[in-house]
Amino acid sequence: MKLLVWSDGRRSRWSGSRRLLRWRSGKRLDALGLPRRFTAQQLLERAREHLGRDIYFAAVELPPRAPSGLALLPEGCVIIVADARTTRWHRWHIWLHELMHLLWGHVGRPMSDPAPALRSLFGELPPEVLDRVLTRTGCSAHEEAAAEMMASVAMRRISSWESPQAQQVPDEAREILRRFQSTLG
């Protein structure tokens, strides 16, 4: 399993054109086979097909210094976590932002030794589990801007939000999410 954390809450200025980035984001959504206006459910179905993994959204109360969203990637699925204390629309934007990183193909830059940084966030997990299954990554300012723009374009183009706000995680991934939640206190 990988743990992907894209945002540390800081704003950075990307030197590229916002207009070009907005156009590229729209083209990336079009490449998924989505119509100009689509439902949240259609986006999730196309993203599942593209990534070859089931996608689940989870709302978890995250600690104050934690990122507002992150993606857990156990075998065969993606669990995108957003802070449960945010508003419904902000939570959707966080979920979409994390999903867009995956759709752009952002892989981040692995830390040389992820265990010490992760131990502070996941102190309850045994060290061998951290060493074996967790990886923390970060993205460039350009990748953050691309994910943010694509999430914004998607939110504008979604015509119906008739989709669960948070989903039941399947049995095979439930234990991972339970352990993640227990480490948060």
Task: Explain what the structure shows.
The protein has helices at 18-31, 40-51, 88-104, 114-121, 127-133, 141-157, 171-183; strands at residues 2-4, 38-39, 54-60, 69-73, 77-83, 158-160. The chain is an alpha/beta fold. The strands form 2 sheets. The chain has a 4-stranded mixed β-sheet, with helices on both faces. Strands 2-6 form a two-stranded parallel ribbon. Strand 4 (69-73) and strand 5 form a beta hairpin. It is globular and about 40 Å long. The protein starts with a strand and ends with a helix. 31% of the residues are buried.
Concise overview:
This protein is an alpha/beta fold and 185 residues long.
Which helices and strands appear, and what pairs or packs with what?
Elements: E1 2-4, H1 18-31, E2 38-39, H2 40-51, E3 54-60, E4 69-73, E5 77-83, H3 88-104, H4 114-121, H5 127-133, H6 141-157, E6 158-160, H7 171-183
Parallel strand pairs: 2-6, 3-5
Antiparallel strand pairs: 1-4, 4-5
Helix pairs in contact: 1-6, 3-6
What integer is the average pLDDT? 76
Q: Determine the N-to-C terminus distance.
A: 21 Å
Shape: globular
Order of helices and strands: EHEHEEEHHHHEH
What class do helices, strands and sheet pairing give?
A: alpha/beta
Across the major sheet, the strand order is: 1-4-5-3
How many runs of DSSP E, i.e. beta strands? Answer: 6
Unreliable spans: 6-15, 128-136
Sheet bearing the most strands, described? 4 strands, mixed
Oligomer: single chain
Q: Using the CA coordinates, give the radius of gyration.
A: 16 Å
Hey, roughly how much beta strand do the residues contain?
5-15%
Number of helical elements: 7
Helix content: 40-55%
